[in-house]
Inverse folding.
């Protein structure tokens, strides 16, 4: 089972809350990479039905993916899975909970389940629950992030898992894609770089903020959702989340509640410094492919 079959470049355009939508997923498919959106970006099951119908019709048989939150705080999980069974995305990415329920759905129509995991223990649990592959979340990722080095993480997981594996966290250019493959991953997961693409749902202020930002503008905080995540410092400060009031944050990923908090609190990862401009997604993929090929051609000369 190959996660990269039919792709021009081994890249997963990460599903990003309030950023990834129909246009981004369709543009990714047409550009030859794997695009995904998280189901909470749709406020209702009816809206998700419309989104999935449109994507399924417009990708014309190319690979695409959907991301579903399997944590118990997602009250719409059953509805989301029913629509996934209806529209049959080739790849289903689970997050923030056991992939078990999603496995039954995806395997029912021949789909692949990639479980989003931030550490080795959860990687083992996801595979035991039936996941086909792992979307390893390493340090430097935007939004909910991991804490492990991507190189150490991939190396550790490859000792017991030979199936599909993507790695994400701070990958901002074609050299990072090549490094991910050299480390043992099948594909690189990139989110931050695509916040500024024309097809993104992000507002113009958000897009310009990521274009202007550097590494020093990224901060980690669990104050927004109760789980550690990477944010743009200025937006976090404006919302009053930089100060620690001593309280214990509650884990809450419910779409309605999170939308109000995240619309003006902007996530971004450590790959932010590689973003030079806003552009169509296909243009960004062209640039990444050129960088990737340059590295791949240079490496043999160094041996």
């Amino acid at each position: 089972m190959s996660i990269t079959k039919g792709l021009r470049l081994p890249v997963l355009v990460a599903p990003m809350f309030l950023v990834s939508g129909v246009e981004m997923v369709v543009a990714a498919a047409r550009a030859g990479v794997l695009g995904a959106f998280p189901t909470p970006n749709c406020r209702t099951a009816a809206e998700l039905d419309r989104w999935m119908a449109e994507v399924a019709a417009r990708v014309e048989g190319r690979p695409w993916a959907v991301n579903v939150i399997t944590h118990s705080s997602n009250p719409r999980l059953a509805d989301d899975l029913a629509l996934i069974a209806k529209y049959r995305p080739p790849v289903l990415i689970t997050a923030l909970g056991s992939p078990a329920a999603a496995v039954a759905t995806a395997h029912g129509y021949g789909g692949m389940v990639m479980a989003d995991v931030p550490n080795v223990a959860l990687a083992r649990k996801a595979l035991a629950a039936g996941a086909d592959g792992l979307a390893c979340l390493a340090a430097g990722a935007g939004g909910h992030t991991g804490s492990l080095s991507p190189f150490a993480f991939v190396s550790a997981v490859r000792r017991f898992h030979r199936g599909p594996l993507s790695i994400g966290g701070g990958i901002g250019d074609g050299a990072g894609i090549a490094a991910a493959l050299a480390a043992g991953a099948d594909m690189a997961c990139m989110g931050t770089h695509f916040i500024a693409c024309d097809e993104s749902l992000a507002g113009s202020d958000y897009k310009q903020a990521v274009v202007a930002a550097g590494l020093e503008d990224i901060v980690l905080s669990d104050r927004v959702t109760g789980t550690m995540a990477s944010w743009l410092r200025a937006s976090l400060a404006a919302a009053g989340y930089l100060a620690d009031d001593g309280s214990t944050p509650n884990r809450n990923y419910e779409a309605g509640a999170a939308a109000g908090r995240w619309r003006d609190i902007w996530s971004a990862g450590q790959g932010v410094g590689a973003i030079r401009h806003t552009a169509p997604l296909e243009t960004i993929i062209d640039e990444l492919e050129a960088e990737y090929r340059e590295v791949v051609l240079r490496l043999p000369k160094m041996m």
